[in-house]
Amino acid sequence: MTAIASPVRTGSLRRTGADWMGLAFHGVLLLSLLVSLLILLTLIVDVVGRGAPVLAERGLDFLTSPTSSRPAQAGVAQGIFGTLMMAALVALLAFPIGILTAIYLEEYASDSRLTRLINVNIRNLAGVPSVVYGLLGLAIFVIALRDVTGGRSMIAGGITLAILVLPIVIITSAEAIRSVPRSLREAGYGVGASRWEVTRLLVLPSAAPGILTGTVLSLSRALGETAPLILAGAVLGGFSTGSKDIVEQIFGRYTVLPVTIFDWARRPQADFRELTAAAIVVLLVVTLLANAIAIYLRNRYEGAR
Amino acid sequence: MTINAAHPEPPLSWKLQGRSNRRRRERLVHAVLLAAALVSVLVSALIVVSLLGGAVDFLSRIDPSQLLADGWYPRRDEFGLLTLFAGSLLVTGMATLVAVPIGLLAAIYLAEYANRRARRIVKPVLEILAGIPSVVLGFFALTWLSPHVVQRLNPSASDFNLMAAGLGVGVLTIPLIASVSEDAMRAVPASIREASYGLGARRITTSLAVVIPAATSGIVAAVILGVSRAVGETMVVAVAAGGSGGARFTLDPYDQGQTITAAMASLAAGTDQVAGGNAAYQSLFFLGLLLFAVTFVLNQVGDVFVRRTRQQY
Amino acid sequence: MTMTQPPPSLPPPSSRPPMAVPIRVDAAASRAGGGDGEAPAPKPAVELRDVSVYYGSFRAVRNVTFDAPANAITALIGPSGSGKSTLLRAINRMNDLIPGARTEGEVLYHGQNLYAPDVDPVEVRRRIGMVFQKPNPFPKSIYDNVAFGPRINGFKGNLDELVEQSLRRAVLWDEVKDKLRQSGLALSGGQQQRLCIARAIAVEPEIILMDEPASALDPRSTLQIEELMAELRARYTIVIVTHNMQQAARASDYTVFLNMGEDRAGYIVERARTIDIFTNPKSQLTEDYVSGRFG
Q1: Residue B110: CB partners within 8 Å, gap ≥ 6?
Q2: Does the pLDDT at position C207 exceed 80?
Q3: Chain A partners of B132 at a C-beta cutoff of 8 Å?
């Protein structure tokens, strides 16, 4: 009877040699991560390098001057003002509607065709390119509702951005509400609380951190958007707000920081390159700050669970 | 309504119908919440209406042959769609070539290799990358990627070129592909990995031969969603690819070009008057409709794969 | 009275060992009246008439009829899947919260059917409270946990007194009186469950439903809960679901035995005084279950 060769090596258990392939692969992985990190760093270093001198030289003047065709005088004041106003409008319009929608979907809606339609619809809206929302803003709020909004006005732009951000607010809020454990709701119902009482007094306080994180993230996304506002009528180039009061400005022309950046980036003069970089630094500070706050909030509350 | 210490005699059983104002309040709340939810449905309807209205108007004004023009020069009434399709295809293609390998590898690292310290560094980097506004990336593509990467590869490339835009869009898409793929890989149950390690496989084998095949639907979903994102990206191209005012048909990535999205931005940023009734202006909506249709289809397909990942486990 | 052997009428199968743990039927349980020519059955706090509960098209509970006498402890026992919890939750309309759940039949409380169309489930739950299997205090202070129910129901009296009274009745006051502002989640498992009982008591229900209240607790806490139940009986009616037969025998006055039928729906096999169910069951199935032959 011939011996059957064992298919398994019965040699020593020690490693026979270095695991070259494994190490190489690990190296490739780290390399790809390095590339991402390097890209990020290069971007930041390059932008800051170009923009810092302008900020150092002109500092406050840069932040408080309106845009201009002359590089030495151009500043981001109008952009900053517009961005801040956009933040307020988006928060005012998108957050309440978005959170209420999330509450409806998670706490009140039955499993009907309408509910499924709403859910599918929201997921679809989340995937629509931002420039299409600009078209919506243009067609409806700038053109059709011209008499109400004042045409190419800040409010029209604000509504457009709020609509853009709405699906994100809904989705993140719904997730936060969904992650509240069922036992909490049952305990509330068990002592005779009504649905709204359970929602308002138990579910929402528990979901608040997640909802907060979601809204801050959506805000930072909105503040970086350019294309929808270009379509919805933000001003490229110079305009004056003169002595208009806040209400007139809301129904009047405006610009935001990203649009200012786009405007300057297109100009041929070399000086505008540096100005663009400086404006980018300001924008990055704003958006990265918002992102950082959101991430911090999320980590803090996820850790506490 | 006071609550007695001992049981009330007789109990308030006739009040089982509940206080009427409490029930009224509940009904009101329900109505308000439903109204909020219907806003999102209204938004969809409005999108369709705005796009269709303008697109139909556009098509009614032009002769179909204009759509086959050799370039996209809207102000000269040349609406060569192929130019834009070619541009979008080139940019999206290059973006995918950049984003998929880097994103996938990052996902593999995060899902299979990274320890907690590494995650704490890598995840924020990806999240910061995801938070960079696209106009900033466009500027970066124009002022750094173009001279230092594209023109190194081909010194005769123009300053504005499609490749710089493509690379920029790719960088933008990396975080999306990385996060969706990572979710897919993490969804693969630990038991499958353990089975592989239990047979004596090393990490690389387990990752490549076991986890990735198991996470295929999720990875496919990531790529599709990444492509959809890249197609819809506007500002990087608008800044870095040139072509404002119009572009000739080209398949050369080193050339200037125009995508569907950047053409829209150009149209809107070019004129300063509202709703001229001219065809050039209405072409904006037609392009929007095309873009919406393409990304909608891509998203639906992507969602199918996302659902498949969830269903498997 | 202690029983260590099964009733003599059964032939002992050779392979079956005698019952390992004797089932002790409490003297207190024999206080429950009814049967054998003694005082008439006490007034029911709630009556179930032909109750069936469906989840969608699946029937979980089939045609259950029984009374839960006032100021007594009624235990629902039975193997897994016999619909005990579903039945319990039908009493205070907690099943309404599950989409697709439907209840047929009547649950009569003071002569009114709780499932009548104009009845508000919220009001039902104010009068029929519930304690759950896993303690679920609110993420609030101990004080606010107990005060929650009264507050939302418009209590206008002295809240501090009510909170103290409820905590005393739940035998928790002495342990927490100095830390009422601390989070309810910081308590031990047994304390949390007593807090949940205090919370349920604070709205002055007439009936308290308990769904396996001690199954997630250690033996000492379990005993504390059972002692607490015996005290609560004076003021409230208690219906308890338990999978622990010894607990049912120790702690309850009446027992309802449910079993899962061929159609996977729970149905009522027998309902009697606890002492009778465990020492002299009318049904062979009951006998088999309480002596541990199945379930």
Answers
A1: B119, B122, B123, B178, B182
A2: yes
A3: 43, 224, 284, 287
Q: Tell me which chain A residues have a C-beta less than 8 angstroms from the C-beta of C94.
A: 186, 189-190
In Å, the largest CA–CA distance within chain A is 106
- Report whether A289 contacts A217 (CB < 8 A): no
| Strands of C101-109's sheet in order across | C112-113, C101-109, C44-55, C58-69, C266-273, C254-260, C73-77, C237-241, C207-211, C128-131
CA A104 to chain centre: 24
Residue of C100, C123, C129 lying closest to A191 (CB–CB)? C129
Residue C94 and residue A191: Cβ atoms within 8 Å?
Answer: no
Q: How far is A246 from chain B (nearest CA, A)?
A: 24
The CB density around residue A44, as the number of other CB atoms within 10 Å, is 18
Burial class (CB in 10 A: 0-12, 13-18, 19+), B33: buried
Residues in chain B with pLDDT values less than 50: 1-14, 272-274
Exposed/middle/buried for residue A303 (C-beta within 10 Å: 0-12, 13-18, 19+): exposed
Q: What is the pLDDT of residue B80?
A: 86
- Which residues in chain B are closer than 8 Å to A225, comparing Cβ atoms? 133
Q: Distance between CA C279 and CA B76 in Å, rounded? A: 100
Beta bridge partners of C53: C61, C103
- Scanning every residue of chain C, which has its alpha carbon at the shortest distance from the alpha carbon of A197? C152
HEC readout, chain A: CCCCCCCCCCCCCCCCCCCHHHHHHHHHHHHHHHHHHHHHHHHHHHHHHHHHHHHHHHHHHHHHCCCCCCCCCCCCHHHHHHHHHHHHHHHHHHHHHHHHHHHHHHHHCCCCHHHHHHHHHHHHHHCCCHHHHHHHHHHHHHHHCHHHHCCCCHHHHHHHHHHHHHHHHHHHHHHHHHCCCHHHHHHHHHCCCCHHHHHHHHHHHHHHHHHHHHHHHHHHHHHCCCHHHHHCCCCCCCCCCCCCCHHHHHCCCCCCHHHHHHHHHCCCCHHHHHHHHHHHHHHHHHHHHHHHHHHHHHHHHHHHC
pTM: 0.86
Angle, nearest 10°, between helix axes C189-202 and C219-232? 20
Chain Cα centroid distance, residue A35: 24
**Which residues does C246 contact at the CB level (< 8 Å), separation at least 6?**
C21, C23, C24
What strand order describes the sheet that includes B78-79?
B78-79, B71-73, B247-248
- CA distance from start to end of chain A: 66
φ/ψ of residue B234, rounded to 5: -110, -55
Contact at CB, C206 and B11, closer than 8 angstroms: yes
User: Pick from C116, C120, C155: which is nearest to B3 by CB?
Assistant: C155
Closest CA to A185 of A199, A171, A173, A172: A199
- Contact (CB<8Å) B109/A43: no
Residues B146 and B240 sit within 8 Å (Cβ to Cβ): yes
- Which of C99, C129, C132 shows the shortest C-beta gap to A186? C132
For B24-43, what is each residue's pLDDT tens digit?
Answer: 889 999 999 999 999 999 99
Of A95, A46, A59, nearest to A218 by C-alpha is: A95
Closest CA to B231 of B278, B263, B255, B202: B263
Above pLDDT 90, what percent of chain C?
60
Q: What is the pLDDT of residues B109-162, one digit of tens each?
A: 888 888 888 888 888 888 888 889 999 999 999 999 999 888 888 888 888 889
All residues of chain A having their beta carbon less than 8 Å from the beta carbon of residue B51 are 132, 135, 139
B residues 154-183 lying closer than 8 A (beta carbon) to A: 171, 174
Cβ separation B299–A288 shorter than 8 A: no
Here the ipTM equals: 0.88
